[in-house]
Amino acid sequence: MPDTEKVIQLSRIFHVTTDYLLLDIDEAPQSAAPAENNRETEQRAAEKQMKRQSMRMHFGWFLLIFGVISLSATLVGAGLYAQTLTEWWTNLGRYGTALFDSWILALFIVSAALTLCGILILIREYIFIGKE
Q: What is the pLDDT of residues 35-94, one digit of tens each?
């Protein structure tokens, strides 16, 4: 009689029950179960990947929309501030001074960066949508 540990190891290697190895029972190997588990694992991995991609796309749309709205608000704010100026220091006139020689420039840069990041994320996700 073979050692019990070796019988268990053999049953794991060949994906059969110990009864199949020890007794003379005609039983098909259990290769269908690991294949089914592999399919389930692959399906869960694919669903997880699609969920991540969906989240990235939603984040990209959020950045794009928020960036465009804040960029528009910054430009309108610069226009309102330009109306209060009595003199200007740039060649772009009163509006250029309000936009580029004030704290509004920081808001303009942040808004433009948000918009650009949203665009880049969406481009990446829509280009690689079928390649992953």
A: 566 777 888 888 888 888 889 899 999 999 999 999 999 989 888 888 888 776 767 778
Exposure letters 3-42 (e unless 16+ CB within 10 A, then b): eeeeeeeebeeeebeeebbeeeeeeeeeeeeeeeeeeeee
Task: Give, for 132, the enclosing helix (H) or strand (E).
Answer: none
Q: What is the model's pLDDT at position 132?
A: 53
Taking alpha carbons only, the member of 131, 114, 129 closest to residue 63 is 114
Residue 128 CB-density burial (10 A; 0-12 exposed, 13-18 middle, 19+ buried): exposed
